[in-house]
Amino acid sequence: MAAVNQIGSSRRWSMLALGVFAQASSAVFVHGTPFLLPALTERGMPLVTAGLLVSMPTVGLVCMLIAWGYVVDRIGEHRVLVAGPALMLVAGLAAATVTQYAVLGVLLFLGGMGAASTNGASGRVIVGWFPPERRGLAMGIRQTAQPLGVAVGAMTIPTVAAAHGFSTAVLVPALMAGAAALGCLVGIIDPPRPEVTGAQGKPANPYRGDSTLLRIHVVSVLLVIPQAALWTFALLWLHRDVGWSLPVAGAVVTATQILGAGGRIGAGIWSDRVGSRLRPLRTVAIAAVISMSALAFAAWMQWWWLAIPVLFAASVITVADNGLAFTAVAEIAGPYWSGRGLGIQNTGQNLASAALAPTFGALITAAGFPAAYLLAAVIALAAIPLVPTDPKS
Fold it and tell me: Which of 93, 134, 139, 199 is deepest in the core (most CB within 10 A)?
């Protein structure tokens, strides 16, 4: 508690705001590119191929998450939160000058590598500067960056791509990243870390002799499938099956992401009040199964009067687990391992997300959107018995 009292409350919240903005710019870069799918497919590109291209930022992110986590554990959060967004800026500016899809894919990959920096570093700033009874709320606010980033992508990227082309649309996250790099350069302070105690003078490995962290990682991988399915294909589903125009569909997806941001905050407050991150996580997993099953059924029956409200509910529920699991990993791993722990956490989730676009694209091509939503529900069902109980203090 002494560490968190070393700075004023206003400075603590300003660093949270900077972390949210940096993570949001990463989310636009990584998760905003799927909103280019309509533009790509309407130009004749097969859905599987287009899905592979828009997954390149996720692939780049996955390749660097653990490496960035190791760097954060070694040198702290401040420099990482400047370097990563700066790389996104450079890659995005370069992408705006090319027209060949292969080169664009490489630059999207490099931007994804830079985006990986903000995941663990911004989370560690929060865990380091906020007391335990406020961490759930603070991390819930930080986790709004992802749905808000998706919302920004839904509002801007399809419109910019339609008017000016694929490459120009990449300027949206690139310029956001540049602003984030500048803000973090000025406003982020590395939180203090306790001195290492013990015979060898090295922090204990939290993965040895305890499966709690590994189980949280597996649960998070399984639960990311429903949310990634909605992020990647909801816009296309609303446009193709429901028959809405792209502006209307984009507005609906934006609204679902804004509500999802509120859901993450609510989940964080809930975890603070019950004094547990893992008990609410189990409840969210159950709700994800129910909501995705209902969406699959309503989409199959073409009951749009039911499917659209269920889409809103599922979009809120399926993102609520992220902050809970993220906070649990950071707290259990401790200040000398949380960078790597959060890197492992996000690597598994983003590997699953990267694989989802082409594989679910093939499934949708063969069997339709309801089959994809049902498969997401079945995968979430497998997560429920794997949620660990709270570790003994």
Answer: 139
